Task: inverse folding
């Protein structure tokens, strides 16, 4: 059996977080000491590991409680919703990033950032020995094997939606003759 303090240290949480988890029924200790201190069993530790993993994925405590209650399919649904939310957040951040790039407009100011523009990507591909035909083959293969990732990647380069649609349409037709 493990005390609340020891469990908190093991998971890098505050004692008050574990007390809160107890108050909402998310992680109720299996026992109490003679002095009425909370005591956690190995099963409780396993449950806390699950809670920590789902929290790391960004799930709400309510969603975690539903998952741990064993509601059928809830884990998959909650994780799919979270992934969709993350994708939307990333898309919003990309738009903000591209706005900042447009506001700065000075390439030397961008050199210390993680920003990869369309022009820079084309330079990298050319430097790797790809000609126009090779670049189009690259797009066709990317679209064939990972279409959503292809979309995300093109968006990350700051390419406009109309051009992305054209690239993807061509790529689909090239990979499905």
Result:
């Amino acid at each position: 059996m493990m005390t609340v303090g020891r469990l908190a240290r093991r998971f890098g949480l505050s004692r008050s977080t574990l007390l809160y988890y107890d108050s909402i029924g998310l992680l109720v200790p299996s026992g109490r000491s003679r002095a009425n201190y909370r005591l956690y069993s190995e099963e409780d530790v396993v449950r806390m590991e699950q809670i920590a993993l789902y929290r790391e994925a960004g799930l709400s405590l309510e969603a975690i409680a539903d998952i741990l209650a064993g509601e059928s399919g809830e884990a998959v649904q909650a994780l799919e919703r979270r992934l969709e939310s993350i994708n939307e957040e990333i898309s919003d951040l990309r738009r903000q990033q591209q706005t900042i790039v447009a506001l700065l407009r000075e390439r030397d100011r961008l050199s210390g950032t993680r920003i990869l523009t369309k022009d820079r990507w084309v330079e990298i591909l050319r430097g790797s020995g790809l000609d126009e035909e090779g670049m189009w083959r690259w797009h066709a293969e990317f679209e064939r094997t990972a279409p959503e990732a292809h979309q995300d990647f093109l968006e990350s380069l700051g390419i406009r939606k109309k051009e992305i649609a054209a690239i993807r349409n061509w790529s689909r037709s090239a990979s499905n003759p």
